[in-house]
């Protein structure tokens, strides 16, 4: 491949820099044109590293009238008039939020700095946040006699920064929320609406309107709007159009089959679905990183451990294996308050769960991990947090043994992992079959091997199923009993029946845990060939 490719914009969120410095830009401007042309107030929730800041930056350059930056993109050839507006852009990643007082002061300082940049007199700091913001808007409007565009990025940073850290931090989160509620409410005011051209707010979480946007209840929520399900992220079609040369370069340099590489990229980084419409997108940060480094690794998770989620999961004793088979109605994704946080909507909004299916009749969504990158990284991190162990290489060894069909060796490694968990972290009331099942599930998931729990069959429920390229492992757990009883149950219930004639070897595994020893007491492995099928 001789043609020089544009650099990939990994971690670059400034649209003007991407264009002027020759980086690749995936054209999303048709969506932006549609939003600008059809409405005024919008909100969008998406996981981190999905391009929210770049989206805000793109809006900024559109409303500043910088048409030439968009040459070759959809909006350049549209009927958009490229009028220049005053743009107020706030990034809450850059605003201190240690408590309500600091947050309020930093918002005021940030806005007053914008006034100074425009040669406008500062607003009195002593005013309430509402009166301050109103005076700020009036000053900008009077200076330019032009409607104002408001672009607010990561609106929820002053809230989620304090979640999952105890009661005192939760109190700060609630006080910050109340301040932001008053702040955003200004944009709904009658005298402000006429001075407003466009409002676009982004964040990770979607707090219910009663919680934070009750004063700004005219926002159009795009989070699960099927018309804009691919406004962020990269679709298969966009890969075909813009990224095929990068995949070919990867294959050429690493001597890989392009079809196999494409499937591997899909398994690791695709799978995010944000609406009832069956459109899946890739995480752009991870996909670009893999194509740039010519290596498939877990990139997204390394950019920030979801501490608040893990703390909530530990606190609420969430049974993680069931998160691959969850069902929910849409209302569940947006109705939670700080005083009664639910892990499920936070998992969805943060990108650790996604939509796997939708029943149009019942309006029920099926949820699960979006891809291998998320499942493997999240479960590994959660295991170490719960177990109190330091990170090592045993997970990877478990995965290799299972892939190679050496299941007894894999189980022995798992036993050694269990034996390292400090007894002080294993409270007596925790030690039961569900605890062992969850820890086993986390270990296998973290190893990179596909495991699914609680699979319904015609005659019962399979505790766990591991599928590799060549084998199905059907697992039944017992506690303080005998592994032979587990094998017997698999046979009597015919758990192996759905996996016959699929061209893979079927292995039956019975595992018995001991609450006294806090480990696997015994296990039994049989090949399905030994069963009268």
Mean pLDDT equals 89
Question: What percent of residues adopt helix (DSSP H or I)?
Answer: 25-40%
Shape: globular
State the strand order across the main sheet: 2-3-4-1-5
The profile of the biggest β sheet is:
5 strands, parallel
Distance from N terminus to C terminus (CA atoms, Å) equals 53 Å
> Structural class per helix/strand content?
alpha/beta
Beta-sheet strand percentage? 15-25%
Radius of gyration: 26 Å
Number of strands: 13
Low-confidence stretches: none
What is the helix tally? 18
Brief digest:
The chain is an alpha/beta fold and 533 residues long.
Q: What report would you give on this structure?
A:
- It contains 18 helices and 13 strands.
- The protein has helices at residues 15-20, 29-38, 52-63, 100-117, 129-144, 157-160, 167-185, 190-193, 236-254, 258-269, 284-293, 307-316, 343-350, 372-387, 394-403, 407-419, 433-446, 483-493; strands at residues 41-45, 86-91, 148-153, 196-203, 220-221, 326-329, 354-359, 364-368, 450-457, 460-467, 471-479, 505-514, 519-527.
- The strands form 3 sheets. A 5-stranded parallel beta sheet has the order 2-3-4-1-5.
- Helix 4 runs parallel beside helix 5 (129-144) and helix 14 crosses helix 17 (433-446).
- It is globular, with a radius of gyration of 26 Å.
- The model has no long low-confidence stretch (mean pLDDT 89).
What labels describe this entry?
single chain, 533 residues, alpha/beta, 5-stranded parallel sheet, 5-stranded mixed sheet, 18 helices, globular
């Amino acid at each position: 491949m001789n043609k020089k490719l544009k650099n990939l914009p990994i971690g670059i969120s400034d649209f003007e820099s991407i264009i002027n410095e020759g980086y690749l830009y995936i054209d999303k401007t048709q969506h932006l044109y549609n939003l600008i042309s059809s409405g005024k107030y919008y909100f969008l929730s998406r996981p981190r590293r999905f391009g929210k800041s770049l989206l805000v930056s793109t809006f900024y350059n559109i409303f500043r009238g910088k048409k030439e930056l968009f040459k070759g993109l959809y909006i350049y050839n549209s009927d958009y008039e490229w009028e220049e507006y005053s743009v107020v852009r706030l990034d809450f990643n850059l605003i201190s939020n240690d408590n309500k007082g600091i947050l309020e002061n930093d918002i005021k300082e940030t806005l007053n700095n914008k006034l100074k940049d425009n040669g406008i007199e500062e607003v009195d700091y002593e005013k309430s946040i509402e009166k301050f913001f109103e005076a700020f808007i009036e000053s900008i409007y009077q200076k330019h006699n032009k409607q104002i565009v408001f672009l607010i990025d990561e609106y929820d940073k002053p809230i989620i920064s304090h979640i999952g850290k105890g009661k005192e931090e939760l109190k700060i989160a609630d006080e910050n929320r109340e301040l932001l509620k008053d702040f955003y409410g200004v944009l709904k005011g009658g005298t402000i609406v006429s001075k407003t051209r466009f409002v676009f707010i982004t964040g990770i979480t979607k707090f219910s309107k009663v919680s934070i946007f009750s004063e700004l209840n005219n926002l159009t929520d795009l989070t699960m709007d099927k018309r804009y399900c691919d406004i962020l992220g990269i679709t298969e079609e966009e890969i075909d159009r813009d990224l095929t040369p990068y995949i070919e370069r990867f294959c050429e340099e690493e001597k890989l089959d392009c079809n196999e590489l494409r499937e591997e990229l899909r398994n690791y980084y695709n799978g995010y679905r944000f609406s009832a419409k069956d459109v899946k997108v890739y995480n752009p940060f991870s996909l670009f990183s893999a194509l740039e480094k010519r290596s498939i690794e877990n990139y997204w998770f390394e950019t920030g451990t979801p501490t608040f989620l893990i703390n909530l999961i530990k606190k609420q004793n969430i049974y993680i294996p069931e998160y691959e088979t969850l069902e929910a109605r849409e209302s569940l994704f947006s109705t939670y308050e700080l005083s009664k946080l639910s892990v499920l909507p936070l998992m969805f909004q943060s990108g650790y769960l996604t939509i796997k299916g939708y029943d149009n009749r019942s309006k029920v969504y099926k949820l699960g991990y979006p891809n291998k990158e998320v499942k493997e990284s999240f479960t590994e991190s959660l295991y170490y947090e719960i177990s109190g162990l330091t990170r090592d290489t045993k997970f990877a060894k478990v995965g290799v043994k299972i892939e190679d069909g050496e299941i007894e060796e894999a189980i022995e490694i798992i036993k050694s992992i269990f034996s390292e968990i400090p007894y002080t972290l294993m409270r007596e009331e925790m030690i039961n079959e569900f605890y062992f099942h969850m820890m086993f599930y986390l270990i296998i998931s973290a190893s990179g091997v596909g495991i699914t729990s609680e699979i319904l069959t015609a005659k019962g429920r399979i505790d766990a199923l591991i599928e590799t390229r060549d084998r199905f492992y059907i697992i039944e757990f017992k506690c303080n009993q005998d592994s032979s009883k587990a094998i017997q149950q698999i046979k009597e219930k015919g758990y192996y029946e759905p996996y016959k004639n699929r061209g893979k070897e079927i292995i039956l595994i019975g595992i018995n845990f001991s609450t006294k020893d806090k480990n696997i007491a015994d296990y039994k492995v049989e090949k399905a060939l030994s069963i009268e099928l």
